[in-house]
Amino acid sequence: MVGLVKGQQEVLGLYPNGNGGKIPFRSRIGIKLILGFLIIATITASLGYFSLYYSQTVAEKFQELIVQTMPTVDSLKEMKAAALQIETATNEYVFIPGVNGNKYLQEINDQKSKFNNNLNKYEGLLNKYFPDDKSLGLTIRNSGDLFLKDADKLVKIRQTVPFSATLPAMMHLQALTIKNQFEPDRLLNDIDNAISSEVGESANRENVVNTAISNSSLVTISSITISVIFAISFGLYFSRYISGPISNIKNAATHIGVGD
Questions:
Q1: How far is CA 152 from CA 131, 157, 209, 227, in A?
Q2: Residue among 38, 45, 47, 43 at smallest CA distance from 222
Q3: Deepest of 8, 21, 168, 193, by most Cβ within 10 A of its Cβ?
Q4: How far apart are CA 174 and CA 31, in angstroms?
Q5: Taking the model in full, what pTM does it have?
Q6: Cα-trace Rg, the chain
């Protein structure tokens, strides 16, 4: 009888407000439940952090692909377009009498400026992001200088004769000789090689981005799987941990009910 009273007092000490429906904080089960849920929360937060980290890595790699590779290709394409415009405008200015000379001269100067600006931009991008490819920029600059010098020579030949007149035979022959050198095949070939190189760089960076995406997906799936498995295992363990004492109490009550 004394032991029964003592046990009742211990129970009342755990529930001073008489609220027997709640697990008290200082009980062993309550503490272990709190610790268990804290562990689950910590693991879930850690896995979420790694998923976020890989997602940010994907974004950074994609941004790198845009910032580094795309502008170089755009600059090369702009140079190629400018070179073709210079060739067309120069040939029409020199070999077609009676044309609006000022219009073509303006077009030639504008396209030369466009070509040089994009070449400078391209070389700047090479120096910053692709130092190993500086030789490509140097090759384009050399062939571009030759191309523009030949264009200037043809313009000077035309400027020695009135715009309305046809070039004299000797000047026409001289202009044709320069024109054969002036064809931008070498320059365009150098630009196309540079574009091919940049496209290859772009493909490599795209592979890096795809790898980062795959890793991010793998980490996310792994995080979800681990969280689910751990949550199920934790739930099964604590359900048994809690149901065990309750079952014992039920059995004890049954025995007490029959007079034991």
A1: 32, 9, 46, 72
A2: 47
A3: 193
A4: 99
A5: 0.59
A6: 41
| Predicted confidence (pLDDT) per residue in 124-174, tens digit | 988 888 888 889 999 999 999 999 999 999 888 888 877 666 777 777 777
pLDDT of residue 29: 59
Closest of 77, 110, 105 to residue 93, by C-alpha? 105
Cα 87–81–136 angle (5° rounding)?
Answer: 100
Percent of the chain surpassing pLDDT 70: 63
CA distances from 139 to 25, 184, 202, 223 (A): 77, 14, 21, 51
What Å distances lie between residue 162 and 78, 99, 159, 171, 175, CA to CA?
Answer: 33, 11, 7, 13, 15
Q: How far apart are CA 119 and CA 138, in angstroms?
A: 10
CA distance 187 to 145: 9
Q: What angle do CA 78, 83, 88 make, to 5 degrees?
A: 125
The pLDDT assigned to 2 comes to: 47
Confidence label for 243 from pLDDT (cuts 50, 70 and 90): low
8-state DSSP, 43: H
CATH code at 29-235:
1.20.120.1730
| Amino acid 4: pLDDT | 47
